[in-house]
């Protein structure tokens, strides 16, 4: 993280947003309207078929059995069996389609978040822990799986079942129906309170999961393991992780038990309702009112029992939706992040890039509250020439180089490539034109060949070998047991620093950019390795516009021009010899550089 950059924190939640959030969630399903319509039809058909069974049962008890009509009894029994078969078939089809739609929505969400993060400026990633980002994609979206894949369908299915069942109950006996539904408003109120409670706990739980994921990502990486063991902090890291996990245990238990007793009370009351119905029917009979037939009573209780399952499920779905709103809110936070660096509406595409770079009165700051990191930088690098940027730590050297490939955008002034503001270029032109080799070389956990082809997926074996020969790394790779199929390991830890740098150089050679940025590419290497890498860099730089950020001044003596940055401004400029004659900041830096001390006298 740059010293001036504040850590990223998610925006505060707006208590008035749930309706808007719900509309936004429903929009996720819009591309799958056709399939959802089919699900709705299946749900409706299943509900209608399922409520037919109690009516068939009533006819069996009130007509077929008392009258001894065997043929009718057989038909009614077969009808009950057929309704069970049809309900099951409709249920399987409904589950298949709804699960497919849900998984497609999950895929859309994951892809949308990943795409959004790919568009975010470098500043976002320097302010955000990697584990936090991973947790949003894995834990938050993963936590929504049940909701997205089944809750929506369950909501429609249970609602349809409840409506159809209530209508059927009214058709049988309206008085018993009123008794059955007296407590429904209380149940709805209880479920809403439980939902709000679980939503609050879920937000806390997901934050804790993100914190734990960040701890794992940082401490169990190769670098984290090396640091922990060499500093003797392995036990401390284990204790820290255990404490994080303990907090998660507490939140998981609270999440699971939130409102559990209240929801159990609903289940107990509903389970006791048949006894209430029998009691109410008995009172009706004793009061002299119209008697309820045995068949009607049994059919009504059967319908009521059938009502319990979707009603309880419907209330639970409401609770689940409240819980899921917390997860959706965290995902929408990322999807709503402002993308600072965007491609213009009508981007300029350069088919042939010469490579002239110009910084015109460039000013830059990481945060409006902090002072400028760069101020009034004016420098032109002709196509095919080299510029070296030197200066003390924190003077803005790396920041200046980041402005060319638009890892950051200038705050004031402009940076041009062949006379065109880089902000007006299309991303593809910029990516083809500018290659970067930094001090921290990143290699994927893949083979050598796959890492090299990341720069040019269609590169032939001959092109790869030519690039590695130019980078002076081919002989080493060829000497490995698996050659170019050798896995480089996590972040390339199976290779030394110099070998990784030469692999990065070979990768850039395959890309073949006309503009090359070398960001302290040899500063962390020993003198012997530096010499080998420098030879590879010299081969790579031939005929390209080169911008070198230098820590070791031994790498900049032959640059066509050198600028010295101090507090973000150009303090000196000229060739190596001209700057030595000025005996200013550059000469002072040379005197501190033990490698060039003899040459400077």
UniProtKB/TrEMBL annotation:
Keywords per UniProt: ATP-binding, Cell inner membrane, Cell membrane, Membrane, Nucleotide-binding, Transmembrane, Transmembrane helix, Transport
Pfam families: ABC_membrane, ABC_tran
InterPro entries registered for this protein in UniProt: AAA+_ATPase, ABC1_TM_dom, ABC1_TM_sf, ABC_transporter-like_ATP-bd, ABC_transporter-like_CS, P-loop_NTPase, Type_1_exporter
Gene Ontology CC entries for this record: plasma membrane
Domain ABC transmembrane type-1, residue spans: 38-323
UniProt cross-references to SUPFAM superfamilies, sorted A to Z: ABC transporter transmembrane region, P-loop containing nucleoside triphosphate hydrolases
GO molecular function, one term: ATP hydrolysis activity
Domain ABC transporter: start-end pairs: 357-592
Gene3D superfamilies listed in its UniProt record: ABC transporter type 1, transmembrane domain, P-loop containing nucleotide triphosphate hydrolases
Principal location listed in the UniProt entry: membrane
Parts of the chain that traverse the membrane: 36-58, 70-97, 162-190, 263-281
GO biological process, alphabetically ordered: oligopeptide export from mitochondrion
Topological type in the membrane: Multi-pass membrane protein
Subcellular location: Cell inner membrane
Family of the protein in this entry: Belongs to the ABC transporter superfamily. Siderophore-Fe(3+) uptake transporter (SIUT) (TC 3.A.1.21) family.
Name used for this protein in its record: ABC transporter transmembrane region
Species assigned in the record: Streptomyces pratensis (strain ATCC 33331 / IAF-45CD)
């Amino acid at each position: 993280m740059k010293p001036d950059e504040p850590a990223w924190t998610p925006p505060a939640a707006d208590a008035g947003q749930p309706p808007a959030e719900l509309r936004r969630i429903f929009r996720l399903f819009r591309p799958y309207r056709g399939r959802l319509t089919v699900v709705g039809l299946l749900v409706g058909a299943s509900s209608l078929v399922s409520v037919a069974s109690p009516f068939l049962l009533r006819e069996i008890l009130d007509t077929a059995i008392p009258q001894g009509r065997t043929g009718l009894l057989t038909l009614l029994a077969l009808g009950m069996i057929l309704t069970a078969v049809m309900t099951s078939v409709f249920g399987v089809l409904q589950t298949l389609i709804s699960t497919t739609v849900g998984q497609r929505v999950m895929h859309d969400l994951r892809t949308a978040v990943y795409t959004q993060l790919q568009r975010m400026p470098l500043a976002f990633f320097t302010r955000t822990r990697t584990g936090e980002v991973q947790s949003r994609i894995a834990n938050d979206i993963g936590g929504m799986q049940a909701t997205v894949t089944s809750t929506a369908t369950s909501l429609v299915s249970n609602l349809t079942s409840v409506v159809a069942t209530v209508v059927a109950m009214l058709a049988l006996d309206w008085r018993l129906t009123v008794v059955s539904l007296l407590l429904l408003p209380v149940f709805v109120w209880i479920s809403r309170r439980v939902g709000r409670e679980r939503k609050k706990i879920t937000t806390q739980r997901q934050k804790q999961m993100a914190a734990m994921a960040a701890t794992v990502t940082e401490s169990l990486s190769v670098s984290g393991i090396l640091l922990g063991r060499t500093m003797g902090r392995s036990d401390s890291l284990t204790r820290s992780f255990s404490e994080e996990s303990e907090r998660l245990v507490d939140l998981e238990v609270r999440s699971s038990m939130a409102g559990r007793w209240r929801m159990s009370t609903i289940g107990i009351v509903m389970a006791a309702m048949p006894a209430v119905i029998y009691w109410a029917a008995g009172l009706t009979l004793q009061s002299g009112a119209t008697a309820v037939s045995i068949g009607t009573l049994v059919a009504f209780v059967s319908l009521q029992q059938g009502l319990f399952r979707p009603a309880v499920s419907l209330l639970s779905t409401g609770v689940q939706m409240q819980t899921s709103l917390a997860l959706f809110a965290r995902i929408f936070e990322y999807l709503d992040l402002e993308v600072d660096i965007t491609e213009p509406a009508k981007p300029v595409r350069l088919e042939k890039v010469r490579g002239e770079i110009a910084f015109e009165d460039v000013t830059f700051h990481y945060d409006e509250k902090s002072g400028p990191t760069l101020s009034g930088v004016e420098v032109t690098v002709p196509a095919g020439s080299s510029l070296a940027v030197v200066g003390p730590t924190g003077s803005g050297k790396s920041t200046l180089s980041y402005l060319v490939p638009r890892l950051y955008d200038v705050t004031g002034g402009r940076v041009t490539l062949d006379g065109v503001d880089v902000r007006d270029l299309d991303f593809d032109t910029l990516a083809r034109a500018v290659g970067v080799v930094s001090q921290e070389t990143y290699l994927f956990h893949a083979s050598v060949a796959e890492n090299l082809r990341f720069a040019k997926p269609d590169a032939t074996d001959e092109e790869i070998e030519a690039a590695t020969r130019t980078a002076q790394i081919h002989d080493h790779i060829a000497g490995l047991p698996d050659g170019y199929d050798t896995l480089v390991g996590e972040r390339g830890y199976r290779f030394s620093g110099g070998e990784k740098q030469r692999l990065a150089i070979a990768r850039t050679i395959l890309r073949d950019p006309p503009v090359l940025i070398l960001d302290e590419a040899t500063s962390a290497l020993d003198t012997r390795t530096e010499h080998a890498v420098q030879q590879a860099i010299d081969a790579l730089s031939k005929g390209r516009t080169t911008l070198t950020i230098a820590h070791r001044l031994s790498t900049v003596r032959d640059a066509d021009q050198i600028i010295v940055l101090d507090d973000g401004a150009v303090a000196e400029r000229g060739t190596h010899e001209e700057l030595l004659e000025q005996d200013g900041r550059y000469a002072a830096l040379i005197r501190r550089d033990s490698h060039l001390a003899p040459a400077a006298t």
